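job 3f2a | input accepted
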Amino acid sequence: MSAALKERGHLVERASNAEQAIQLAEENPPAMILTDLDLPTFGNLMSLLRAHADLKNMVVAIIDINHPQVADQTVNVLCDFQALDELIDSSQQAK
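job 3f2a | predicted structure (95 res):
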């Protein structure tokens, strides 16, 4: 997925767990956080983000063609990279 995102012109930072993702976002705030619903620390990531003073409104997305149900309604479930590009564009225009 990183390679596909880079080919589309996106800068990609990778984190191995929720705590590292928060640290990276604090150091260099991203346009959004793209994560995996199956990530073992997904719930922890969402809890840490929503409790963080500076990151609580961070746009969070997953790409999944199966349209899974996500308990946190603030998570954007996207079906493809085009939808991701559109979400990034709209979130940057809103700033």
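job 3f2a | The chain has one domain: 2-90.
job 3f2a | closed
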